[in-house]
Automatic annotation (TrEMBL):
The lineage of its organism: Eukaryota, Viridiplantae, Streptophyta, Embryophyta, Tracheophyta. Residues 438-501 form the ZZ-type domain. It catalyses: L-lysyl-[protein] + acetyl-CoA = N(6)-acetyl-L-lysyl-[protein] + CoA + H(+). Residues 142-556 form the CBP/p300-type HAT domain. Its EC number is 2.3.1.48. Keywords: Activator, Acyltransferase, Chromatin regulator, Metal-binding, Nucleus, Transcription, Transcription regulation, Transferase, Zinc, Zinc-finger. Acetyltransferase enzyme. Acetylates histones, giving a specific tag for transcriptional activation. GO terms for molecular function: histone acetyltransferase activity; zinc ion binding. PANTHER family: CBP/P300-RELATED (PTHR13808), HISTONE ACETYLTRANSFERASE (PTHR13808:SF1). It is found in: Nucleus. This is histone acetyltransferase. One of its GO terms (cellular component) is nucleus.
Length: 725
């Protein structure tokens, strides 16, 4: 406040104009990031936006630019300069008429309909409470992180984290010769799983073509999860830590069976208290490591964890220290890297060096690089370069062919081996960045994880063990080729039955779907479009508050119910439901009326039971999606009582002038249902209106995101290679 010397300054922070960090802009064709203050061209056909850097614009012959099969005329493009800045918005107190930044005031601008929302600044609010003119809001009036649905995973991580924090605080107090309450401890921590979805990942076409002889699958099913850590600071819950997970269960085919991938992990620096833990690291780092270790402990039923983290070396070292700690606690079996495990056949390993063994994850580095390398090989072949240098097989060294264990290679097998050679050369200088963690022991010969049958262990050699199949093959070999190789005296192998690995890895947590939190890309886009940034503490508080607001208020569009009495829309989290009748839902207003409700059965409310409200909402959403298909095919009086409502939504959508982007609630609800349906629809001739358009837009958006992600990942790898060099 001592800096607040001007009426133009914010009455809370004392500063005047504050600018947001500008969001990145990417060229649509080449996906390169357009530099600040650089000129670029933009085109905005219906529902889409294209940006073109100067090289792509100049390289395009003719009057159009073709992007993903769509021709964009140059005449309709606008020239822009990437120097736009966005100022933080302001809000004026209705009592004292002072101006404040909306971020400083924690003002939810979504409720400011047409600028008519009433706002009282913190100073006036406190003065009113002091004079008895206003009663402070009760605890829980604002739905925070603890009111988000709990899951088995979040409860497990929270409980183990709290036990470890209590033990750490006791040890710290003992070392400092103080009482437990005299040393600061981490408080008000909340772990929540905010997204848990079943997804399928399609294999890129060029790689799938060269691996077809290996019976390589065309897609991999997996569970996508997003986990957040919140901490209440100064009365506001701040998001400190988040990670995006891909879990591949026992039902998935090899090479992804029983694997887990951490596709994104990030944290901010505002954790309280800012003290060192008894282990010597900061308490913040201690908490983040414990979350990771507890998550790994939870998914021990899945045989392996892969953590491919493209980060700076200091960050890699921090997480390696966490993994070493997990190894000391017997949570993990071994820590290695992608290169040493899949690209090098050392010792008595007899596994084939092939891309068919590499775990294939959504957004990972090597699938992008592999597609480019295969394309380059194909280009060289098409241009007859191979005839000058010899066949593809001859370009592979004899040493590489010997390592592959094959003497007669097909064209695809030769491409596969050459691809592994090129990938290995690219990954080897920075192999330590590709962390890979084993949660179960792997067979020394075939390198597959042993999850059933027997493990044949050598008591004389450390870490030598075979699966049942490799043990049978070992018994049929000549003495010179049996373990240990190149030694006259052979070792006996003893059978150890594997009993601690469950056969089924099905996730018991329920499906959690929030519109803007389906993946890392959706979260980043959502934050960029709304300027939810974490570069300062005040912005971190505001951004976290708005994220929680969206998480608690995304239900009106998707999970709305209808009051049986007044027929108004109500949220699944704010209704009274009959314990007997499946669709008898009543709003709180009708339920509280005199005389209550003339209904013979008992009711229960969902006000304080978010899990039950979520189950109710998801069940209602499934009904709405089934009803959507029915309404698109029904042309007469229907037995479904709500079919007419869906048809009315279709008619409304045709004549509405406001539309969903303008804030029309019926249009938003209709588009949300159609987009959810299109995400799962596989029919090419679907009867649901605009389903085909939504699917086409989704494919276009995925292509854009994949291209941008590819460029970002490749840039990071180039920078990392330069650092290592």
């Amino acid at each position: 406040m001592k800096h607040s010397t001007s009426e133009k300054s914010c009455q809370l922070c004392g500063l005047e104009k504050l600018m947001f960090e500008p969001p990145p802009i990417y060229c649509t064709p080449c996906a390169a990031r357009i530099k600040r203050n650089s000129v670029y061209y933009t085109a905005t056909p219906p529902d889409r936006q294209y940006c073109f850097c100067i090289p792509c614009y100049n390289d395009a012959c003719g009057d159009t630019i073709v992007v993903y099969g769509t021709s964009i005329p140059k005449a309709g493009m606008k020239e822009k300069e990437n120097n736009e800045e966005t100022e933080e918005s302001w809000v004026q107190c209705d009592k004292c008429e002072a101006w404040q930044h909306q971020i400083c005031a924690l003002f939810d601008c979504r409720k400011n309909n047409g600028g008519q929302a009433e706002y009282t600044c913190p100073k006036c609010y406190a003065a009113q409470v002091g004079r008895g003119e206003r009663v402070p809001s009760p605890q829980g009036a604002v739905l925070g992180a603890k009111y988000l649905p709990k899951t088995i995973l979040s409860d497990h991580i929270e409980q183990r984290l709290f036990r470890k924090l209590k033990l750490e605080r006791q040890l710290r107090a003992r070392l400092q010769r103080k009482d437990y309450d005299e040393v600061p401890g981490a408080e008000s921590l909340i772990v929540r799983l905010i997204s848990s979805l079943d997804k399928k990942m399609e294999i890129k076409p060029r790689l799938h073509e060269i691996l077809q002889e290996e019976n390589y699958p065309s897609e991999f099913p997996y569970k996508s999860k997003v986990l957040f850590l919140f901490q209440k600071i100064e009365g506001v819950e701040v998001c400190h830590f988040g990670m995006n997970l891909q879990e591949f269960g026992s039902e998935c085919q090899q090479p992804n069976q029983r694997r887990v991938y951490i596709s994104y992990l990030d944290s901010v620096k505002y954790f309280r208290p800012d003290v060192k833990a008894v282990t010597g690291e900061s308490l913040r780092t201690f908490v983040y490591h414990e979350i990771l270790a507890n998550w790994i402990f939870r998914i021990l039923q899945i045989s392996r964890v892969h953590k491919l983290l493209h980060m700076g070396m200091s960050t890699i070292e921090r997480y390696l220290s966490m993994l070493r700690k997990a190894a000391m606690q017997n949570i993990v079996v071994a820590v290695t890297n992608l290169y040493d495990h899949f690209f090098v056949c050392s010792g008595e390993c007899k596994a084939k060096v092939t891309a068919a063994r590499l775990p294939y994850f959504d957004g990972d580095y090597w699938p992008f690089a592999a597609e480019d390398m295969i394309y380059q090989l194909q280009q060289e072949e098409d241009e007859k370069e191979w005839h000058k240098k010899g066949t593809i097989e001859k370009t592979i060294t004899e040493r590489a062919i010997k390592a592959s264990g094959q003497s007669d290679l097909s064209v695809n097998a030769a491409k596969d081996l050459l691809l592994m050679h090129k990938l290995g050369e690219m990954i080897r200088p920075m192999k330590e960045d590709f962390i890979m963690v084993h949660l179960q022991h792997a067979c020394t010969h075939c390198c597959n994880v042993m999850v059933s049958g027997n493990s044949w262990v050598c008591k004389q050699c450390r870490n030598f063990q075979l699966c049942d199949n490799c043990y049978k093959a070992e018994q049929q070999r000549e003495d010179g080729e049996r373990h240990p190789m190149n030694q006259k005296e052979k070792h006996l192998l003893h059978a150890v039955e594997i009993t601690d690995v469950p056969g089924d890895t099905k996730d018991k947590d329920e499906i959690l779907e929030f519109e803007f939190f389906r993946s890392t890309e959706h979260i980043l886009l959502f934050c960029q479009e709304n300027h939810y940034q974490f570069d300062t503490f005040r912005r971190a508080k505001y951004s976290s508050m708005m994220i929680l607001c969206y998480l608690h208020n995304l239900t009106p569009r998707a999970l709305t119910l209808t009051c049986y009495i007044c027929h108004r829309s109500i949220r699944a989290s704010q209704c009274w439901r009959c314990e007997t009748c499946p669709d008898y839902d009543v709003c709180n207003t009708c339920y509280q009326k005199d005389g209550r409700i003339d209904h013979p059965h008992n009711f229960y409310n969902t006000f304080n039971d978010n899990k039950k409200a979520l189950q109710l909402g998801v069940m209602q959403l499934r009904k709405m999606l089934d009803l959507l298909v029915n309404a698109s095919q029904c042309y007469m009086d229907c037995e479904y009582p709500n079919c007419g409502k869906l048809k009315a939504l279709f008619r409304h959508g045709k004549r509405c002038d406001i539309r969903a982007p303008g804030g029309c609630f019926p249009c938003q609800k209709m588009w949300y249902l159609i987009s959810l349906h299109a995400r799962e629809c596989k029919k090419s001739d679907c009867s649901v209106p605009r389903c085909r358009d939504v699917k086409e837009y989704g494919r276009w958006q995925r292509q854009i995101l994949d291209s941008q992600r590819k460029v970002v990942v490749m840039d990071m790898m180039r920078q990392r290679t330069a650092q290592v060099a």
